[in-house]
Design a protein that fits this description.
It is built from 12 helices and no strands. By secondary structure, the chain is an all-alpha fold.
Length: 206
């Protein structure tokens, strides 16, 4: 028998697992507005890398809504995103497509989707160059990529490289932008905020 002052507290119902859509939205910093996508196709029609993508962003978002996790994360779409934000500017629903693509990259790396296994290394090399010099160093980027992933292909593109060098389109040595210290301070602060967001669980990041 329970005393008159005692109350029965019902057990808490277990929270249902998040859908893939909800997980992608949670992994994207800020308000991604992904749930607002109306499948108009403006993003794909605006994307300079669209012809190289196996799925347009619109198609990729449909896969996410359909909970087709493996198919979505095995896509090359987000790896071909060049972060120009043209799709974001033109989106009638103001969906932050570029930020969603970055979140999908992190999720694909974390979950070991290896269909495009060289893409993360290429991306990290590019980012490292930007953090170090403030811009891409094409010769260093291409050399590291080809020697690591496809050394025989390096020989085949030698003629193209020589032609670019002759036209001063490919530098032998990297150059730093002016005010590189300011850029590095901004990037350092961004890394700190990212680490804090991950620590507090505000957003799910690598």
């Amino acid at each position: 028998m329970l005393a008159e002052t005692e109350t029965v507290v019902p057990p808490r119902a277990a929270k249902p697992p998040l859908s893939f859509l909800q997980q992608v939205m949670a992994a994207t910093p800020g308000d991604s507005r992904l749930e607002m996508c109306i499948q108009c196709g403006t993003c794909g029609g605006s994307c300079p890398s669209g012809p190289d993508m196996d799925y347009t962003p619109r198609h990729l978002f449909a896969l996410i809504r359909a909970d087709m996790r493996d198919q979505a994360l095995s896509s090359n779409t987000f790896w071909y995103c060049v972060s120009c934000y043209y799709c974001v500017v033109r989106c009638p629903q103001q969906v932050y497509i570029t930020d969603i693509m970055a979140a999908l990259k992190r999720m694909a790396i974390r979950e070991g989707h290896s269909l495009h296994g060289d893409a993360p290394d290429f991306s990290q090399t590019f980012i490292g160059n930007v953090e170090r010099y403030g811009r891409s160093f094409e010769l260093g980027l291409a050399t590291r990529y080809h020697l690591t992933h496809s050394p025989l292909r390096k020989v085949g593109i030698g003629t193209l490289a020589l032609g670019m060098m002759a036209r001063d389109r490919l530098a032998f040595t990297p150059t730093r932008i002016q005010g590189i210290e300011s850029l590095q301070a901004i990037l350092h602060k961004a890394h700190e905020l990212t680490a804090e967001a991950e620590r507090t669980g505000e957003v799910e990041l690598l």
